[in-house]
Structure formats: structure tokens, C-alpha cells
Design a protein that fits this description.
Length: 201
């Protein structure tokens, strides 16, 4: 049997302690690296979660649904109610029927800057008729889905009249000198028109 003296035994234990310390040190270093990596990943995920939370709770400003640049027009002629929306930049004048007036019940004059260039909505006593020579028509839909007809003469780009046979054959809008964008704006105004006939029980 081989016996180790104290020096050899002590020397062997010293090497073993160094190896154990090295392993423990490496293990601790691995744990530290893993811990740091985990913290970095956690911070990244938390930051993203916070970002998503913040952006997800942003409430958009409510849209302003009230148009302050227009006014509502309403008039009752006999038992028919005429309604439309008129921009504030457009002026209007009402002409009521009197003893000297012609064959109409009510007139609404629409003009922008020049009173001599205007559109006139007339509510006649009888059906509105036009001359067909050189005339073309284009159908449009009012905002409520009802059809109207725009009349043009001799290839002119600016409309001559707008009639409403699907609503009331006695109502017409006639163009007196409006051209270009102003003429087109009147069409947009007319698209807001509603005609309601009161039904008596």
C-alpha cells in the first residue's frame, strides 16, 4: 500500500480546491451573463408593452360634424315644404307672389357676389316646360337619392336649368349668367334640396 505524506496530500487537495473554485467562478459568470441578458430582454419587452399601451389609449379628437359655414332654408308653399342648405357665402332673396307677379307661387333668388348673375328657383302654378331645340340633359341624384335633370343648350358647358319631374313638375331652377365654379356650386346647393308634400287626412 502506498502512503502519501502530508505534503503530497496537502498538495493534492490544493489542486482540487483550485479546480472547484474555477468551476464555481465559471458557473457564477454564466449566471451573471444570463441574468443581465434576461434583464435586457425584460426591459425591451416592457418598453414595447408600455408603448403599445400608450398608443392604444390615444383617443382621436372628435370630428366637427356641425358645418358653421351654411344655413338651413325652409319655405312652405301651399302644402309643399321646400328645404335646402345654403352656404353663407351665397346670398338669397325671396319673392312672394302678388297681384303683379307672373304665373309662379314663390321665387328664391341665389347669388354670390354679383346680383346680376344669379340662379332663380321658381315654384310655378303649372308644370315647367322647355324648348327642345339644341338642348341636351344630364341626370343627377340629389343627396336624398331623388333624380333631377340638368339642361344645357348648344353645347354650352354652363347649365341652363334644373328640373325636378320626380319631385314636383312645377319647380325649376334657371341660370341667369352664372358660369364656371359658381354655376357648379349652385348644383351642389340644389343637391341638398328636399321637397315634402303635406298629406291631409
Amino acid at each position: 500500500m502506498i502512503k502519501l505524506n502530508r505534503n503530497e496530500k496537502g498538495c493534492g487537495n490544493g489542486k482540487m480546491d483550485e479546480n472547484k473554485k474555477m468551476r464555481i467562478g465559471v458557473f457564477c459568470a454564466v449566471l451573471i451573463i444570463m441574468g443581465v441578458g434576461y434583464k435586457l430582454v425584460e426591459a425591451s419587452v416592457t418598453g414595447r408593452a408600455d408603448f403599445d399601451f400608450e398608443t392604444g389609449n390615444v383617443t382621436p379628437a372628435p370630428a366637427d360634424t356641425v358645418d358653421q359655414d351654411v344655413r338651413e332654408y325652409s319655405e312652405v308653399v301651399d302644402n309643399v315644404t321646400l328645404e335646402m342648405t345654403i352656404p353663407n357665402r351665397w346670398n338669397y332673396e325671396e319673392i312672394q307672389k302678388n297681384e303683379e307677379s307672373g304665373d309662379y307661387k314663390h321665387i328664391l333668388k341665389l347669388y354670390k357676389n354679383d346680383e346680376d348673375n344669379y340662379a332663380m328657383l321658381s315654384f310655378y302654378d303649372t308644370s315647367f316646360g322647355v324648348c327642345g331645340t339644341g338642348r341636351t340633359t344630364e341626370d343627377i341624384s340629389l343627396n336624398n337619392g331623388v333624380k333631377a335633370a340638368i339642361g344645357y343648350y348648344d353645347g354650352n358647358e354652363d347649365w341652363s336649368d334644373i328640373s325636378f319631374h320626380d319631385i314636383n313638375k312645377t319647380i325649376v331652377v334657371i341660370n341667369y349668367g352664372l358660369t364656371g365654379p359658381d354655376a357648379e356650386e349652385v348644383i351642389e346647393i340644389i343637391k341638398t334640396m328636399k321637397v315634402t308634400k303635406e298629406v291631409h287626412q
